[in-house]
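@channel sequence for tomorrow's demo:
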Amino acid sequence: MKNLILHNIYCYNNNNNFTNNLIYFLSTVVGWILFSIAVLQIPLWIVIAIFKKRFLPFRKMISQAFQPSKSWGPSKVEDRRKWLAFRDECDVEEK
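C-alpha cells (generated this afternoon):
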C-alpha cells in the first residue's frame, strides 16, 4: 500500500503530459470534492448532535451529545425487550 501511494505521488509530480488535460483536472477536482464530503460529515454531525442538546449546560451538553439516545436499539417490541434485559444483565455484571 505504501509503495502504491509513493508511486502515485511520484507520477503525480513528474508527469507533465497530463497537467494541461481537462479530464485530469476535473478528475482531481471531483476526487477532492468526494473526499471533502466524506471528511466534513464528521464535524457536521458533531455540531448537529451538540445543537440538539443546546438547552443543557455546556459540559453536560457535550457529554450527552456523545451518548446514545433513549430510542437507540431494536425497533421490534420483542427484540427490544430482550435487548434491554441483556443490557441490564451486562450492566449488573460490570459492577
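heads up for whoever presents: Helices lie at 2-14, 22-52, 58-65, 77-94.
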